[in-house]
Amino acid sequence: MINPFFKNNGPFKIDKLLRLSEIHNKENFKKFNIHDIKDLITASKNDITFFHSKKYASIASATKALLCITTDNLSHFLPDTCSKIIVKNVLIATAKVTKVFYPKAVNDNFDINVKNIKKTKFKEKVVFGQNVLLGKNLKIGKNCLIGHNSILESNVIVGNNCSIGSNVIIRNCIIKDNVKILDNCVIGKKGFGFFPNTDKNFKYPHIGIVIINENSEIGCGSTIDRGSMSNTIIGKNTYLDNQIHVAHNNKIGNNCIIAGQVGFAGSSTLGNNVMIGGQAGISGHLKIGNNVKIGGGSGVIKDIKDDSKVMGYPAKDLKKFIKENK
Question: Mind telling me the catalytic residues?
Fold first, then answer.
């Protein structure tokens, strides 16, 4: 489940797809249809994928994708079953291809189709405050509450026994049972994804969603961005304090406790039972293990192994930090 809410305009003949994406068809590909663009892991024999860093070489070597956008110096890592589209800038080319498949995922304008809850079928099954607005393609379970001035835009699924506070905006999100989302949260908007350019920055589509699993709580004023090529996931029984930012593609495990004003850059993975003190920062594309404890105000810039306790900037073993800062 990567993009259940975004319409895929495919399949495309490969030559047409490359032409629409403004990518030179050096290899003169013509014969086959491409159904979707996916990451290296989830791509199948009818998909196109991308490979931009040697860090993902082992994953690239096992991809089942039919084609891969990559560079000349990385192409040898890919299997023989995967044809290579060689470009100078993999990420920009990938963004252009994704935009062809999912043009509506680039921008996040407000939902003009929302209706007051009093004019919908949910007025009989939801306890709600004043000025609650609901979009299309929406499901809400039993025993749910929605506070004043909150907007559940199109493409939202809410489980049973959920509580959504006031002044909340949610879109492109699946919320499981017994979840609490407190006041002033924004969940499911696109992430901070673009490539800088001197004239005009190039934005890329975010076709993933946000999944918040059972028994979790999202504190006041928190923002959770939907994924770009994969989903942003909050695990079961995980509690986020106030004013936390979770950027696109992050995966936060079960039973985690994250204190206020913690910020996550994109595409990091947290294990289960992780505890993070207030105002810590987690850089992107990292792996934080199970049972890790991160002290408040720390800056995490590299992977952390299971059962570690770290603090400081850059974050280091807690005992070492205390010894160095007596």
Answer: 248
